[in-house]
Amino acid sequence: MPVEEFVAGWISGALGLVLGHPFDTVKLLGFFKGMSFPIASIAVVNSILFGVYSNTLLALTATSHQERRAQPPSYRHVFIAGCTGGFVQVYCLAPFDLIKVRLQNQTESRARPGSPPPRYRGPVHCAASICQEEGPRGLFRGAWALTLRDTPTLGIYFVTYEWLCRQSAPDGQNPSSATVLVAGGFAGITSWAVATPLDVIKSRMQMAGPKHRVYRGVLDCMARSARQEGLGVFFRGLTINSARAFPVNAVTFLSYEHLLRWWG
Ligand SMILES: C[N+](C)(C)CCCC[C@H](N)C(=O)O
């Protein structure tokens, strides 16, 4: 199994993250002052996503990444490979994402005057407390909603990227850096726009602890959120998700493509 896509995915995920960090910091009210936790998590997750995507395409079309501009895979294959990458990365993303959401939420409530001291002292303490209080399976709370969010939307992510690249470089040439930046940015925005409703549901399910199991499942969470807050609830965070998605994914794809071209 070729591994360079995993390495390129690792590095490009970390670079994308550096750009996304100010947005995440706004979202998290400055909780992640250090960058080591997000770097470690996003880089590993992105490495799995791009590595599995590329190797699935190799299995489906028998073309390596060097051959794919001259012999472009069909959009159906791109979609299946993207969904596969999305599905597999969830198992790594789920615990990291849960910790992020729990820390984010406690920072938000801490901002209110007279609120109790924070329950978790940081990412490691948060992981250890969840394991202790909810068992190791507690680290995967909300993973099903995350799977539903990421599997189709990462298929859409790679199809959007490929489609935009092929519009400006139709003759089997490598797309220019400007094209890669724009295509990567719009791939990020499109997939985040589609993912936002399930992102809202996923975060709500992750916040439900074992003692207050508020939802019976994804559908129950959707129905109750819509009933109580109206359909607008499914678009919460859409603007910040899109604003963050453009630079993060532009840089992720640019560095990914350049690293792979550079390694031959
Ligand atoms: C599928 N969904 C849109 C949810 C995520 C796309 C992930 C792409 C990139 N790691 C980022 O953080 O933007």
N-end to C-end Cα span: 16 Å
The computed structural class is: mainly alpha
Which small molecules are bound? N-trimethyllysine
Mean pLDDT: 88
Largest sheet: none
Relative strand content: under 5%
From the spread of the alpha carbons, the general shape counts as globular
How many distinct helices?
Answer: 8
Q: What ranges have pLDDT less than 50 throughout 5 or more consecutive residues? A: none
Q: What is the tally of beta strands?
A: 0
Query: Helix and strand succession?
Result: HHHHHHHH
Using the CA coordinates, give the radius of gyration. Answer: 19 Å
What is the chains' assembly state?
single chain
Describe this entry's structure for a reader.
α3 (75-110) crosses α5 and α6 (177-207) crosses α7 (218-229). The mean pLDDT is 88. It contains eight helices and no strands. The radius of gyration is 19 Å and the shape is globular. It has helices at residues 4-27, 36-61, 75-110, 123-134, 143-168, 177-207, 218-229, 238-262. The longest helix has 36 residues, at 75-110. 73% of the residues lie in helices and 0% in strands. The chain has 264 residues and is mainly alpha-helical. The structure holds N-trimethyllysine. N-trimethyllysine binds next to α5, α6 and α8. Belongs to the mitochondrial carrier (TC 2.A.29) family. This is Solute carrier family 25 member 45. Keywords: Membrane, Mitochondrion, Mitochondrion inner membrane, Repeat, Transmembrane, Transmembrane helix, Transport. One of its GO terms (cellular component) is mitochondrial inner membrane. It holds the Pfam family Mito_carr.
